[in-house]
Amino acid sequence: MDGMIYVSTSGAYQMLKAQTVYANNLANANTTGFKADRIGFNTSPVKDNLGSTRIYSVLQSLPADLSPGALQPTDRPMDIAVNGDGWIAVQDPAGKEAYTRSGSLRINQDGLLITLDNLPVLGTGGQMIIPPFQKMDIAIDGTVTIVPKEGENPQPMVLDRIKLVKPDNANLQKSHDGLIRTKDQQAQEPDSSVLLTTGFLESSNVNAVEALTSMINLARQYELQVKMMSIAQDNEKANTSILGAA
């Protein structure tokens, strides 16, 4: 059988995989703090007895786009956004330190300060437990202050400071769960230069128009690969007919 059909089948499969990446980006165009995944294509020569006569296209995962999204006002005191470079430290389901730019915070039934994805927010001393309060403020440096709910004349009390870090982006990678982690899996030290804006959330950095355009182009490439499969089959039938008539 003509090796062309294998090349076109492989190409069609790679197009489908690429479409999945862009479809996921597009689906998260409105997800707070989402960082777009990126892909590229490499070439891989097909070697046979005659040498390299054909080339496969191979999908390659590239580092995620870690650029910041736009800040959207919410006027909710527990919504925070990193202003500029930096990350909010959280504890992942495995108990390890990870990082996010999704700053929609709330307090669960156990008094833990958590993200919208139920991940505990880390402070300088680990997980942050918030006692009952009348008022809560998050300063630009991440300092959490409350006015206790109980007491005759309660005074503002500093609880902890949200852990904000600024590792080199070259040492960061996006995991399948959407969280950012360091490549060496080492916890980072707090960085006092990282500042927050309260009452705002960071939007996704996905360019919806670009993602949709890429999906359309990939669909056309997929159709071309399918057409090549059909041509390969027609060639095979013609070759069989010629050989049968000989």
Tell me what you see in this structure.
There is one protein chain. The protein is α+β, with helices and mostly antiparallel strands and 246 residues long. The protein folds into two domains: 4-65 and 206-245, no CATH class; 71-202, no CATH class. It is built from two helices and 18 strands. The strands form eight sheets. It has a three-stranded antiparallel β-sheet, with no helix packed on it. A three-stranded antiparallel β-sheet has the order 11-12-13, with no helix packed on it. α1 (4-27) runs antiparallel to α2 (208-245). The protein is elongated, with a radius of gyration of 26 Å.
Radius of gyration: 26 Å
Query: Which structural class is indicated by helix and strand composition?
Result: alpha+beta
Spans with pLDDT under 50 lasting ≥5 residues? none
Number of helices: 2
Mean pLDDT: 89
The rough form would be described as: elongated
Termini separation comes to 19 Å
Which strand order spans the largest sheet, edge to edge or round the barrel?
6-5-14
Specify the helix fraction band: 25-40%
Number of strands: 18
The largest sheet, given as strand count, sense and whether it forms a barrel, is:
3 strands, antiparallel
Q: Tell me the count of domains.
A: 2
Succession of helices and strands: HEEEEEEEEEEEEEEEEEEH
How much strand content do the residues show?
A: 25-35%
